Input
Amino acid sequence: MGEGEIMSAVIISDTHFGLDSSTLSDPSKVDRLMKEISVYGGGCDQVILLGDIFDFWRVRPENALRESVPLLKRLGEEDLKIHYVVGNHDHHLVVQKQESDFMERTARGDLFPVYSPSLRWRQTINGLNIDMLYPTYRIRCCHRTVLFTHGHHLAGIHIFTMQMVERIRRLYGEELLPADLEMMMAYAYESIYRSSYIGEMVSFEERVWKASSLLQRITTGVFHDRHIASVEAQYEAIERFIRDRNLGEIDCFIYGDTHRAGIFQRMGGPLAVNAGSFTRVPGKGSRIKTPDTYIILDEDGLALRQLGKAEPLFLCELL
Output
């Protein structure tokens, strides 16, 4: 997307509004977060939401939107500009945009297929005007180029899907197209989104996910997947993401998706930072090592913080 200059921002990822595991559906936690932003963020003038803000996979969309009111209302009261980079659990927002664009072209009589590798649009949610982006948002801060994305493109599950599509295309003498990955994602994500209206389907899908996770642990080794979601483990995928999309020089790569906050950097590569999440396991405390984390980015650098902690988890000057 287009590159803009910012002075300061707070970055929040994976709130999963609608689920019982979402912690920012609690107004008291939202109050605490806003106080910390005021204290530690100083003059933050915008918030960047890194996807999976709404969980349209497991609950009806109206329930997810209702749970987001405490946070979005406070952001509106603070007059913070909002940039929302869409993820996989809220991917339906992208499909809505694509369908809206298609209907506009249809009205004009433009019936040629269009593939947009990146999208940017304005959308009103709960009374707030929000800048929506997919799959990336690129800015300049502290004289450095920072790229934001949700992070689901880094996961390995789509690699098998694309290999299957590539084999099918080869059978028909065709090449793999740039749009194929997004089309396959939309196919999978929309199926899950539609099933959220049927409670029995949600329960069935959860059993399938648990079973597949167990199978994966058995085949890859129960004790060997502990670091699979770490920033270090995903670093090669991050470099490949930047390279394959011809994004040029990126100094800092910020994402979410795994719910696992962390940082990592190799010599000559970008600083990679995972913002973590605002989720917990209901009724069982939190299985997330560092829950309720967020990032403050300003002229002093980047701070990865945990809600309720005075000292940042990580502090880095970007100058």
